[in-house]
Amino acid sequence: MLFDDSYKTIVKPVEGFFRDRGSKFLAYAYPIQNEEDTKIYLSELREIHPKAVHHCYAYRLGLDRTQYRANDDGEPSGSAGKPILNTIYSHDLTNLLVVVVRYFGGTLLGVPGLINAYKVATDDALKQAQIITKHVCDVYTLSYPYEQMNEVMKVIKTFDLIPQNQQFDNECSLQIEIRKTLLNQVLGRLEKIESLQLDYKKTI
Predict the structure, then answer these.
(1) Which one of 47, 93, 98, 182 is most buried, counting C-beta atoms within 10 A?
(2) What string of DSSP letters covers 7-65?
(3) 178 - beta bridge partners?
């Protein structure tokens, strides 16, 4: 199987809602890049909803299913975080955080009722979302003498890369994002350019 470097996520934050026997479940879905983003959104929601009894959440990062977390925040084990996470999986999305804020309505829903509520609230939010396909890219900084400019630009044009943070002087530098599936081809071409330095920055 060929490595696939594309993934689906949401364009911007969306909200969903579900009510059952007086309890209200408010779902918030956010596109995220890393674990730090989840902490920021969670603390924001705790400030907006200080009277809510639970802030349950799940997130998934990356292409595989190894970077994820599900949190029940005091609900019975497996009744909140897991249904949220499974709903993210069933929509085939990643780089996504969903937080469901619950206001208790006075009636216990039982574990099956909770599983259903967290699932339906998450589903409602994700149905409102605009889905986008993105690609996993490695970010590199290129440093090279001014004389090599044409050669560098030729490679960039060949692979439809977008140069960023360009600096032109005797020593030039720029940053490019290279799709994972094109990485070997692009790096192979760039490495042939004399006096060019390649510096790996990060994967996005």
Answers:
(1) 98
(2) EEEESS-EEEEEEETTEEEEEEEEE-SSHHHHHHHHHHHHHH-TT-SEEEEEEEESSSS
(3) 138
Q: Yes or no: say if 52 and 101 are a contact pair by the CB < 8 Å rule.
A: yes
Tell me the C-alpha distance between 162 and 156, whole Å.
Answer: 7
For the whole model, what pTM was predicted? 0.83
**3-class DSSP state for residue 129?**
coil
CATH of 136-203, one of 3.20.20.80, 3.40.980.10, 3.30.70.240, 1.10.10.10: 3.30.70.240
Per residue in 47-102, pLDDT (tens digit) is 999 999 999 999 999 888 789 999 999 999 999 999 999 999 999 999 999 999 99
Domain map (residue ranges) of the chain: 6-133, 136-203
- 5: CB partners within 8 A, 6+ apart: 63, 135, 136, 137, 179, 180, 181
Tokens representing residue 169 in the block: 């002087």
CATH of the domain spanning 6-133: 3.30.230.30
In 3D space, the residue among 100, 68, 93 whose CA is nearest the CA of residue 10 turns out to be 93
